[in-house]
Write a structure and sequence with these properties.
The chain is an alpha/beta fold and 332 residues long. The chain has three domains: 58 residues; 183 residues, no CATH class; 76 residues, Winged helix-like DNA-binding domain superfamily/Winged helix DNA-binding domain (Arc Repressor Mutant, subunit A), CATH 1.10.10.10. Helices cover 51% and strands 13% of the residues. It contains twelve helices and nine strands. The chain has a four-stranded parallel beta sheet with strand order 2-1-3-4, with helices on both faces. Strand 8 and strand 9 form a beta hairpin. The protein is globular, with a radius of gyration of 24 Å. 27% of the residues are buried. It holds the Pfam family DUF1835. This is DUF1835 domain-containing protein. InterPro entries: DUF1835, DUF3658.
Length: 332
């Protein structure tokens, strides 16, 4: 009974745990002088918790689990693989951005705190967005850990640092589970899985179903790679020559500057341009899976270095415009 209760408590989400704790505290306060009645009430709460998880598991029956590293890919997989005549699948999105920001000891609380602090200090999230993202990812990792034995797990990835690091991070968390794990690589012509349509994902899935699951040796190799990455303190990682490489955070600054010069020339005048325009061009031309938040961070860094003049307030890219300083526009 106690072991079963412990497992049920571990599976609670943050909101469910708060609700249970509040109930216990309330009962304790109201019944502190009625020990026998309190014992009955706590026993009732315990039974309710166990019944809740039994009902939840019955509702959530599935035969396969797919792991994706973006909500876009997750949505496409749900559309591609969940059909009435097919076996029900569960899709777990772990939507962090592993290409940038510290991942030092990210599998531990100290590493999570370090990453949160850096992202909070450097990246322009909407209010509450970062906390929501971190809480959601924690819940998704817990969901992954609760996948029953015997259910195969399919991890989707592409040729980019973000998803490749995600593979290693997920496999580290799965290190004590004995489920078969399949690595689903999308075609190399796509930079990331989020670019692939639902129809194409289904084709790739059916084609790769014949593949063998990762061996224990292959799993351990990925886990060791994660532990190696988790000992680094760099804040930018790229995918080059088929491997994850560490890079200086300013690696694409010169690219951004040259792109700004090009846009100035195309406009025929050295005037302010929306930062969103510059950032959008950068994302479209770069060969890495880096998002608008990263490039907006680098544009702000270049503003602080005196490379760009600014008009507006840099609380988000839609609120300000930039132009190269006049004395820099001819430099290469």
């Amino acid at each position: 009974m106690i072991d079963e209760l412990k497992k049920a408590i571990i599976r609670l989400s943050e909101e469910e745990a708060k609700s249970l704790l509040f109930t216990v505290l309330l009962q304790g306060d109201l019944l502190k002088d009625l020990n026998e009645e309190l014992a009955k009430q706590l026993n009732k709460t315990t039974e309710s918790l166990l019944n809740y998880h039994k009902q939840k598991n019955q509702k959530e029956k599935y035969s396969k689990v797919h792991v994706a590293f973006s909500h876009s890919t997750s949505g496409s997989l749900k559309a591609a693989l969940n059909h009435p005549r097919d076996e029900k699948v569960k899709v777990i999105p772990i939507d962090d951005q592993f290409s940038y920001g510290p991942i030092w000891q990210l599998h531990q609380e100290t590493g999570k705190e370090c990453r949160w602090e850096w992202l909070n200090d450097n990246i322009n999230y909407e209010e509450g967005e970062l906390d929501d993202q971190i809480r959601d990812n924690k819940e998704k990792i817990n969901e992954l850990l609760q996948v029953p034995e015997g259910i195969p797990i399919f991890i989707w990835t592409g040729s980019n640092a973000h998803e490749q690091i995600g593979v290693r991070y997920a496999l580290y968390h799965l290190r004590e589970k004995r489920n078969d794990v399949y690595l689903m690589n999308v075609d190399e012509k796509y930079r990331r899985t989020g670019e692939v349509s639902a129809e194409k994902l289904k084709e790739m899935y059916e084609k790769q179903l014949r593949n063998k699951p990762l061996s224990n040796e292959e799993k351990q190799a990925y886990i060791n790679e994660w532990l190696g990455l988790a000992n680094t303190k760099d804040v930018l990682r790229i995918w080059k020559n088929g491997e994850i490489q560490l890079a200086d955070v300013s690696r694409y600054d010169r690219f951004i500057i040259n792109l700004a010069k090009k846009l100035h020339n195309e406009r025929g005048e050295h005037s302010f341009m929306k930062s969103a325009r510059l950032i959008g061009e950068a994302i479209g031309q770069i060969d890495q899976n880096l998002d608008d938040l990263f490039f907006e961070y680098r544009v702000r860094s270049l503003i602080l270095q005196g490379v760009f003049d600014i008009k507006g307030i840099p609380k988000a890219m839609r609120f300000y415009s930039v132009k190269l300083r006049s004395d820099l526009k001819g430099e290469k």
